[in-house]
Amino acid sequence: MIWNPNKECMSRELMRELQGKRLQKLVQYVYHNVPFYRNKMQEMNVSPEDIVSIDDIVKLPFTTKQDLRDNYPYGLQAAPASEIVRVHASSGTTGNPTIVGYTRKDLAVWSEVMTRCLTAFGVTRDDTFSVSYGYGLFTGGLGAHYGVENLGATVIPASTGNTEKHIRLIRDLNITGIACTPSYALYLAETLDKMGIDKSQIGLRVGAFGAEPWTENMRKEIESRLGLKGYNIYGLSEIMGPGVSYECQEQNGSHINEDHFYPEIINPDTLEQLPYGEQGELVFTTLTKEGMPLLRYRTKDLCTLMDDECPCGRTSVRMSRIVGRSDDMLIIRGINVFPSQVESVILDMPEFEPQYMLVVDRVNNLDTLQVQVEVRKDYFSDDIGSMLAMKKRLSDKLKSVLSIAADVRLMEPGSIERAQGKGKHVIDKRKLQ
Ligand code: ADP
Ligand code: ZN
What we know:
By secondary structure, the chain is of the alpha/beta class. The chain folds into two domains: 1-327, ANL, N-terminal domain (Rossmann fold), CATH 3.40.50.12780; 330-432, ANL, C-terminal domain (GMP Synthetase, Chain A, domain 3), CATH 3.30.300. Helix content is 31%, strand content 25%. It is built from eleven helices and 21 strands. The chain has helices at residues 5-8, 12-33, 35-43, 65-70, 104-120, 139-151, 163-172, 182-194, 216-226, 339-347, 384-402, and strands spanning 84-89, 99-103, 128-131, 154-156, 177-180, 206-210, 229-236, 241-247, 254-256, 261-266, 280-286, 297-303, 305-306, 318-319, 324-325, 330-332, 335-337, 352-363, 366-375, 407-411, 426-428. The strands form five sheets. The chain has a nine-stranded mixed beta sheet, sandwiched between helices. It has a four-stranded antiparallel beta sheet with strand order 10-11-12-15, with no helix packed on it. It has a four-stranded mixed beta sheet with strand order 20-19-18-21. Strand 18 (352-363) and strand 19 form a beta hairpin. Helix 8 packs parallel to helix 9. It is globular and about 75 Å long. The protein starts with a helix and ends in a 5-residue tail after the last strand. Bound molecules: adenosine-5'-diphosphate and zinc ion. Residues 248, 250, 255, 310, 312, 314 line the site of zinc ion.
């Protein structure tokens, strides 16, 4: 099912025309309402009249998270305070939160794009859907909530925490869908086991997972443990919240809601736009936002864009999974390492729980990487020989994938701290020195 075929299946030509018109209007709007953008454009000698088609976007300035922080709290807001009806903040994974104000129209657009996602996942009015992203300043909870309501399904605003009660609700109310972080989905599966409830006793069939990077192997793990089909949903509060892009049934990249969020990929060093298919930093321009519209916002998320035809019928550009954030990327002895690479290796081996932590340190001026990973109950033993062999198997695989040696620490099941929101997988002690 497609929620809004007029927009989701628009011809490429008409889409680009629409994007061009919206960009023109947006540039006029920010030029006259946000001194930050007016100054930047004047410095670059660009006037709103120079923007006539979507291709002119390369003439416009970038916006960074630092710009948002420098203009904290409301410096980049374009709409008058009287038009703002809600405020959210980014979760602050990588520093101080940034504040985002929404107008009534912004909230309507958000619900619309969220509903497109849920429909692509196969959610219908007949579903009972639990929103288990945190409610509050974080955009996950309320963002997903209004999307479910807009679709006409029944929303259960479960939020995070109180997981046993939540599981009883899943069983008793016959909850069929859930939105949460992949980390929380795993925690839910573990709690289910602890309570002695089998997945056949609950009716979950669809999961909308996002807010943090996750791998295909993690998808398989969650799907088999919860007995559902898991879909990727992506978003960020600066641009809107969840609902910026979503997987369709093909699950070959995520369709971007391009009539509202215009994507580009750039080389983060030269800031040059890269062609589709090349990996780089994802950049978004909010084409229709009123509260805090952003020009060419640098997400720091690394991925590729694809514009080949998708059999589902949607015509929008798709983005690959996020490999990681550029600021998640660890540079260890000069080699780039992403936590997602480690995750992928660990989840490929039946011996390990999908629970891991990378501890990076510097000893005698040399970077060290320790990978802590939980061994599954069935594989954990007192037999030192078999444990050492297991450790070696993982070390060898990590070495071949990461190109550097890691010191593997096998941990007892349950010993690594569980996350209910976004998972934490790195402790970089070098930053603490
Ligand atoms: P913060 O930047 O403080 O974490 P947000 O809560 O707005 O703020 O989170 C947005 C970020 O979360 C994105 O920029 C991206 O790094 C990550 N993210 C969101 N959804 C996904 C997803 N489906 N896959 C990978 N990363 C995601
Ligand atoms: Zn598709």
